[in-house]
Design brief:
elongated, 78 residues, 56% helix, mainly alpha, 0% strand
Length: 78
């Protein structure tokens, strides 16, 4: 009796999954950079929400993360 077990076929290769995880980590970093800046007192407005980190840097990091994720999906396997 032969043992005809097949290896499961994955949609992507190992490299694609590594790039995908890197992209997800970059997206998470972008959202972490966006957090904070609020005031503890609800009657006081804080200008910290308009800092460079939250307005320019964090959205750019998130978009780069999405780009990395899309690249990992479209990368051709050998």
């Amino acid at each position: 009796m032969k043992n005809n077990e097949q290896k499961p076929d994955f949609l992507f290769e190992k490299v694609n999954y590594k790039i995908l995880l890197i992209g997800i980590a970059v997206i998470a970093l972008g959202f972490i950079l966006m957090s904070g800046g609020g005031s503890d007192d609800s009657t006081v407005f804080s200008e910290a929400v308009f800092s460079f980190r939250r307005i320019r840097l964090a959205p750019t990091v998130v978009l780069i993360g999405f780009g990395i994720t899309i690249y990992s999906i479209f990368k051709k396997s050998k």
